[in-house]
Amino acid sequence: MKKQYKLIWLAMLLLLVLSACTPPVPTEAPELSELTVMTHDSFSVSEDVIAQFEQENQVKVVFLKSGDTGSVLNRAILSKNAPLADVLYGVDNTFLSRALEADIFEPYQSAQLSKVASEFKLDAENRVTPVDYGDVCINYDKAFFAEKGLALPQTLDDLLKPEYKGLLVVENPATSSPGLAFMLATVAEYGQEGFLNYWVALRENEVAVVNDWDTAYYTNFSASTGKGQQPMVVSYGSSPPVEVVYASEPLEDAPTASLVGKNMCFRQIEFVGVLKGAKNPDMAQKFIDFMLSKPFQEDMPLQMFVYPVNPDAQLPDVFIQYAQIPESPARVDPQSIADNREKWIDAWNEMVLK
Amino acid sequence: MRLRRSASPQSAGMAQPTTYWLWVVPVIFLVIFYLLPVGSIFELAGRTALTEGLDFNLWQKIIRPLGFTIWQAGLSTLFTLLIGLPAAYLFARFEFAGKGFLRVLSTLPFILPTVVVAASFNALLGPNGWLNQLLMTVFQIDTAPIQVLNSLWAIILAHVFYNTSVIIRVVGSAWEQLDPRLEQAARVMGASPFRALREVTIPLLRPAIYSAALLVFLFDFTSFGVVLLLGGPRFSTLEVEIYIQTLQMLNLPLAGLLSLVQLGCTLVLTFAYSRLNQKKNIPLPPRVRGEGKRAPRGGWEKGFVSLGILVLVILLVSPLIALGLRSILWLDGSRAGTNQGGGFTLLYYRALFENPRQSIFYVAPVEAIRNSIIYAASTVGITLVLGFLIAYALKKRSSFNRWMDGLLMLPLGTSAVTLGLGFILVFQDPYLGKSNFPWMVPVAHSLVALPFMVRTLQPAISSIPESYRQAAAVMGASPLRVWLEVDLPILSRAVVVGCVFAFTISLGEFGATTFLSRPEYPTMPVAIFAFLSKPGALNYGQALAMATILMSVCALGIWVVEKLQISDQRNF
């Protein structure tokens, strides 16, 4: 009989011990106001940078992360009648029109915005403010091309040549954001009708398709730790410096580089905005100013591997050395993306996969 | 405490006690945390469909994925049963060295995040995987002979890898409790071993087999990561379509419709299951001490045991070993620009403890382990209480209970995306108060774990002959004492199985968690995903190291839960 109790007591004791592990609720000064920032899982910032903002403005910044860009935007739209946050960061130009249609942002024109190049300002009403950009580009395995003495493809057309047969892996645009970006690059190059023909030809040249960036990079790409079959992968222009920063041991050179020919890269721009119905709108505006300020803009490259839109911000050396910025990245109008996203993806799906 | 009180009238020895009141707490829980969120998503989807209209290609968007979903789930369940049933027999009837260890290891696949499984499958079976490299060197061939990734076989293989433990645990625990003398009696009376199996053992195990098969089928039916990552883009299930429509296309009406189709299929399945299971279970004196177990005798038995162990090790354990090995091997040793060769390293584990970029989202491994364990323990607690209430309530056979039985399985057939968004929609502040412990995560985990708990407890409870309780009551035992000394010891094996499932489901769940988790309380799967989303050998190595830690913590957890049961049994 006692033994039966033992089991129950043990379980209760275990629960008690575990509940004691719950971290203590941070005790803060009551007058400290709170700013909630909703963002995607890839968001990151240095401790001291955010601490400086908190100290200067006597505010506590709370971050709310909910999956990738799509789920964050969904969450913001679903809760727009009683917003969960004051600021939303992370909407990119592929989702921009959808966010603007849903009418979740309050216009705000930051004083810092005048410095930002006009190519990044996609909303004339300033409901969203550009913060950073990055290019989705094809990365290649330097060692492979050097060993085989193979020339690098200079254009999207080059990828159809027989010498590159079976050497490229791309992501499915229906499930992956770089996959969508690369498909949009082909839309920019070949037009709404022509891009499908290009993909049919690419399929004949044995392009490999996987569902997500992780698999493409770590399983298929030959220059990653997976040592896969394809020496070219759709990834980011900032991936080569990241390979250097996060190597197991110091590297003399980046093992990869990007192909930056005309329309081979698609530029993703990320935006921030004050949410309608924000509890702390003044602080939200200050936070947007802060995101455009030099400390934050200079912190971003090594935290999120994106480029600052503020031209005053200095890039870290590793970016200057290993990252290439394409001269003429592909561009597609956000409204056109919003109108056609589903149609293009479905057509792509039928052409390339079925 | 609620546990005991709830059960007492039941065991008081009444022939047909009214048990509907047992439903009160579980029904409130399910209405608030399941019907409300999912219902609100459907309501919203319906409203949007009315205002915006619903225009889509029925064949492409619904029928094709539905057909493939059923096809792959059926095949996967079949293969899982083919491997799982002999394995359940192996664990239930034979003693062999390392049995406990093998049982814990065979449960581990259940918790691993799919990205990690995909990585270890690739290390083993990929075009450059160890198996292909071995075959290519041995047979002097240039191309990889095994091309299993991105095929239907990869999906089936991964489902077998994930779900064999369900069969082993659910059927195996029922088999262990089966009185071996029944089979012996049949043999004495001249039945062949095959006939004894077919006419005595299998009929008695049928409820457990149906339960396990249903759970496995539902898991395969709603499979997401496996299809996405190992099947590749050519395959699309309903769950994958729901994910794409919700998060990529932001097309809620279509996503809602797909969710409805998925739920409808789940309902049809569970009702078919309860019809199959309608025959009343035969209450048999359960064996608690496992006297049916013995060392294998004779060539045939020894051969079976060795073959069984070999298959389990190759199928279930080798990917785990590959994962552990990769986390301590130099990953970019032979790369250009470096001179370092292969060899072992603890670099990736050390790196877990560093935060060189001073990111505010740095996840300390100890913190991730603690958060994961707190969530898992809470999930076990919630499911244990609700599971007992429901399992006892279901004892009475009525049409109401049959309905409830079917409805209970719905959370398993609900897309994690739908559930997660529903939570956000209903509980505007998804944490029920910002500074509080985020209860939503264990609550969401409990919804998935609850059907497992009920499915394992219910057959065990209905197998207890009422005469036992009556005998105890006649001899003057209080209802509480009857429950503690008759029901609980007999149920302890099933309780352990249920707890192990709740614990592992919570540790590994990543679907609904992405919507509900807070950056302040990262879990181990969250940390693994954060590392995997960045390039660089160090990130990849840290992801594998974290996954290995996740496996070890889970193994330790299962081992502790099993120890509790065994010590209880010896002193019985």
CATH names the topology of chain B as MetI-like fold
Output the number of helix runs of chain B: 23
CATH architecture of the largest domain in chain A: 3-Layer(aba) Sandwich
Radius of gyration of chain A: 23 Å
CATH fold-level topology of the largest domain in chain A = D-Maltodextrin-Binding Protein, domain 2
The CATH superfamily title of chain B: MetI-like
CATH class of the largest domain in chain A: Alpha Beta
How much strand content do the residues of chain B show? under 5%
In the CATH scheme, the class of chain B would be Mainly Alpha
What characterizes the major β-sheet of chain B?
none
Going by CATH, the architecture of chain B would be Orthogonal Bundle
Low-confidence stretches of chain B: 1-15, 333-340, 430-436, 567-572
What's the quaternary structure here?
A: heterodimer
**Number of DSSP helices of chain A?**
12
Q: List how many beta strands of chain B DSSP finds.
A: 0
Extract low-pLDDT stretches of chain A. 19-29
Name the average pLDDT of chain A: 89
Shape assignment of chain B: globular
Largest chain-chain contact?
A-B, 89 and 87 residues
Structural class of chain B: mainly alpha
Describe the protein in words.
The complex is a heterodimer of chains A (about 350) and B (about 575). Chain A is of the alpha/beta class and about 350 residues long. Chain A has two domains: about 35-135 and about 270-320, Periplasmic binding protein-like II (D-Maltodextrin-Binding Protein, domain 2, 3-Layer(aba) Sandwich), CATH 3.40.190.10; about 135-265 and about 325-350, D-Maltodextrin-Binding Protein, domain 2, CATH 3.40.190.10. Chain A has twelve helices and eleven strands. Chain A is globular, with a radius of gyration of 23 Å. Chain B has about 575 residues and is an all-alpha fold. The longest helix of chain B has about 35 residues, at about 60-95. Chains A and B meet through α1, α2, β2, α3 and α7 of A and α5, α11, α15, α17 and α20 of B.
